[in-house]
Write a structure and sequence with these properties.
alpha/beta, seven-stranded parallel beta sheet, globular, 339 residues, TIM Barrel, two-stranded antiparallel sheet, homodimer, 48% helix, 17 helices
């Protein structure tokens, strides 16, 4: 591999400089992405191999990031499990038949990922060919708590009332759902590794809504189950949770090599709390990319300093926002590269 | 006062039992509230003294809570400052002309609260007469960061992109806005105390979106300014922030007597972190009220135990959800009372 900085940093090896990529780097802030997206619905774009490959590569070509992440959506395996998913980027995901009963849980299947989501594996294989070892390729999936939240709420949520209602009122049913999702995600991620994904990131984006106790009971065990079951080929793993500061020590037991943090946690403080065995990823507030290149450079340098140049992957604390000017994203990337 | 448990607990005095009330206790989960609300728009209800008094008293009459909070909305003073506010409970607040420029900031006024929001003071005076010393009356306001977020976003937000853009890109303009809001809120809360509010709660509901550094620069100083300027008559003060675990020690310097916490923070751990000089309020996940009375009682008892029966006001970690069954809210209240 020509640029394996991210792999080495994830494994805790010494690197010449801190590697950098951005969550949702293949997305709406890029005019080149919008040009493709205007002619094709989001879900169809996820399933059209050549176009998904193209938009995955855009941030690498345009911004020279240190890794490519396959273009996809965390709800792709949910659809494969048998629940209808509608994805329009503007309105967010909509699942018109939300899961509310044990019967609905039992009807979900644990799909063969090469059969039901073969397009994802084809995207990965094609990206590996196209990249030809230039930078590593990141595969990913959503974690059970977050996917269950979408499946039960029927979309995004502010209060998480329905998913937490099942969690508190019918914990056995909820565990059955979480376990089924975990089984599906294990197969899905192992198929991604088999197809050529060189790093795996697990997104439990909304687990930060949970108390420590509820995180320990309903989210962490399924993250652990997934990481323990991955058939890794020297494949580093990353755990991302938005809003994880209150259970960071617990998160550190999830089994991932890299802990991806939002801007609420100071990286030096995180290092003190979780010890030396992890690489930390993050953690610029993506809203800082809405300011100016000068401000972005200063705030990014502060994060690079807090990361200490070792066991650190520079990233945002959450996905890049669609309203971000491209030159601001470039200022972020270039600062990591010392340009 | 017949039942002054909440006042005494807020002052750190010994109490016979832990007092209890619920954020948003006058609200849509009550059929009696919905019966009044169906004939009148939300904002009009806030401004119609006899009806606002009636819905404020409903949770006291129906559930026997230990305090009454005046029925109102944190955006009432924003409208008085000169920005149009539309409030429909279902869609959430909408501010059709969001603040984006210095000129707009300069055009906002610091209103005389008795002139522009006299109805709020009249609601307070009437409630005091009606209550006749039965339980204390809570007045409240939103804090500058949270109000600025609504004013700049033009409503609720998921990413807080616009407010944080001004915060990071034009910090001087943002400070000018925050300071003007603080001045308005100081007058507003002092008018409430003058009218008869016996406890004051300040809501910085969305300050948890900020990193420690940004909280210290853009939210905390304005909370401190407000608490320092209140003309208290033995009036206890409560600071509520959703998602405050990552800056709890900083929050403890805001100047309030009571720190109101969400469910992410364990009360015993919070006590260890902030010391003995504060009363803690909270912190049941409001989604637990969507389970069953039996589960609610068990989880509420655990919080009462963590609170230790001293310097603790039982409450939810966030407002009660509209879909909450009344008997579940009752189970929560009754558990505090040992019924």
């Amino acid at each position: 591999m020509k640029n394996n900085l991210l792999i080495r940093a994830a494994h805790g090896e010494k690197v010449e400089r801190t590697p950098v990529w951005m969550m949702r780097q293949a997305g709406r802030y890029l005019p080149e992405y919008r040009a493709i997206r205007k002619d094709i619905p989001f879900l169809e774009l996820c399933k059209t191999v050549d176009l998904a490959v193209e938009v995955s590569l855009q941030p690498y070509r345009l911004l020279d990031v240190d890794a490519v992440i396959m273009f996809s959506d965390i709800l792709i395996p949910v659809e494969a499990m048998g629940q209808e998913v509608q994805l329009t980027e503007k309105k967010g995901p909509e699942l018109p038949s939300p899961i509310r009963t044990r019967e609905q849980i039992d009807q979900l299947i644990v799909p063969d990922p090469t059969e039901k989501t073969g397009f994802v594996m084809e995207i990965i294989r094609t990206l590996r060919r196209e990249l030809d070892g230039a930078v590593p390729l990141i595969g990913f999936a959503g974690a059970p708590w977050t996917l269950a939240a979408y499946m039960i709420e029927g979309g995004g949520s502010k209060s998480y009332g329905y998913v937490k209602q099942m969690m508190f009122k019918e914990p056995q049913n909820f565990h059955a759902l979480l376990d089924k999702i975990a089984d599906a995600i294990i197969l899905y991620l192992n198929a991604q590794i088999e197809a050529g994904a060189q790093i795996i990131q697990l997104f439990d984006s909304w687990a930060g809504e949970l108390s420590r106790k509820d995180y320990a009971e309903f989210a962490l065990p399924y993250q652990q189950k997934i990481f323990a079951a991955l058939k890794r080929k020297d494949t580093p793993t990353i755990m991302y949770i938005n809003n994880s500061d209150h259970f960071l020590e617990q998160m550190a037991t999830c089994g991932a090599d890299v802990l991806s943090l939002d801007w609420r946690t100071d990286l030096q403080e995180a290092r003190r709390r979780v010890g030396d065995q992890f690489t930390l990823q993050g953690n610029l507030d993506p809203c800082i990319l809405l300011s100016t290149p000068e401000i972005i450079r200063a705030k990014t340098r502060a994060i690079l300093a807090a990361g200490g140049g070792h066991q650190h992957i520079l990233n945002l604390g959450h996905g890049i926002l669609p309203m971000t000017p491209v030159e601001n994203a470039r200022a972020f990337i270039e600062t990591a590269k010392g340009v």
